[in-house]
User: Which sequence fits this backbone?
């Protein structure tokens, strides 16, 4: 019997063959390619890593600690050990919002106070 | 497939030897394909995966040439594509989630970040959970590593084994893949100013690297055109 989806199957076959070949090459060769791009083996992996750190954090003092301590003695996140990040990059994500969150029905007083302030500013007696 | 083929000519005198041979070759080829895919999927051990993977394909190619009833090549390609895609995304993203302080991962992930996607470079390893610090990226990674891609990998394996559930789960997980692509792309594009500027290969580099993972879109139409009855029910 003639396959009614012959064209679709042909296209799928070619597309799958190309995609599969590229995926296999990428999966197998991406790491060596990146290492070679950055100068391996003349530059060691740790040196590459350290240089990348210096670029990423724009800080010449940063280096790639290796071996990294398996159990952190200090739970402080890595950026808090350094001063430079928000100075260099501006506000970090997620930003600290510093909102004054209203309490239970506090909005009533807030709105009343705001209205009173607005009234004072425009002069309450003027409209009468 | 061979089960179905064996049941086809009831009562007819027949030589079972080709079926037995095909079944054995199929099993051996699938084992090589699986081992190869898994090694390629780890990225780190990738180069060692190619010989096994190619040998698996070669076995099937020659069996088909000999006229043995092995799984059709198109089905093998579709299954393998999803299998490699699933494993590469499972392991590839898992190393960023779980091994973000190993030397190789820091070098590789930050390296590829500086190449094509600053989301894997900017403020790398600075959140409570290590690895990428790009807005939203971690959430997609966790969802992909722990839900979507393991499911796709299992589905591809079921599909290659010609199980009915494999076909069904291929459809389900390919649609999940469409969902993940849309969500991921929108998150990615929203923060493109931070992710796609001041890098080695901006935008086109990302597409050259990631285009090949659009598998759901090329596989889905095909999945709806094959007869579920040729898949084993168990």
Assistant:
């Amino acid at each position: 019997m003639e396959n009614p989806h012959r064209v679709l199957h042909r296209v799928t076959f070619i597309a799958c063959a190309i995609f599969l070949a590229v995926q296999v090459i990428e999966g197998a060769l991406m790491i060596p390619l990146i290492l070679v791009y950055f100068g391996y083996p003349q530059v060691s992996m740790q040196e590459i890593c350290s240089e990348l750190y210096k670029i990423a954090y724009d800080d010449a003092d940063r280096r790639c600690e290796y071996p990294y301590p398996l159990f952190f003695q200090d739970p402080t996140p890595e950026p808090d050990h350094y001063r430079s990040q928000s100075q260099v990059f501006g506000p970090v994500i997620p930003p600290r919002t510093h909102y004054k969150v209203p309490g239970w029905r506090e909005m009533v007083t807030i709105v009343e106070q705001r209205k009173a302030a607005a009234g004072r500013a425009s002069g309450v007696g003027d409209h009468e | 497939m061979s089960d179905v083929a064996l049941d086809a000519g009831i009562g007819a005198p027949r030589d079972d030897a080709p079926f037995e041979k095909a079944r054995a070759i199929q099993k051996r080829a699938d084992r090589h394909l699986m081992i190869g895919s898994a090694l390629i999927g780890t990225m780190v051990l990738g180069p060692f995966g190619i010989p096994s993977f190619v040998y698996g394909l070669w076995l099937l190619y020659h069996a088909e040439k000999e006229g043995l009833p092995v799984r059709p090549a198109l089905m093998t390609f579709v299954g393998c594509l999803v299998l490699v895609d699933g494993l590469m995304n499972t392991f590839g993203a898992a190393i960023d989630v779980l091994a973000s302080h190993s030397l190789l991962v820091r070098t590789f992930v930050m390296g590829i970040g500086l190449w094509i996607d600053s989301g894997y470079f900017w403020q790398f390893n600075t959140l409570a959970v290590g690895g990428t610090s790009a807005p939203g990226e971690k959430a997609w990674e966790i969802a992909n590593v722990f839900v979507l891609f393991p499911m796709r990998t299992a589905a591809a394996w079921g599909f290659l084994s010609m199980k009915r559930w494999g076909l069904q789960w291929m459809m389900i997980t390919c649609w999940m893949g469409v969902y993940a692509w849309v969500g991921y792309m929108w998150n990615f594009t929203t923060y493109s100013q931070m992710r796609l500027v001041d890098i080695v290969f901006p935008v086109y580099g990302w597409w050259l690297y990631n285009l090949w993972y659009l598998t759901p879109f090329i596989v889905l139409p095909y999945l709806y055109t094959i007869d579920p009855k040729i898949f084993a029910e168990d």
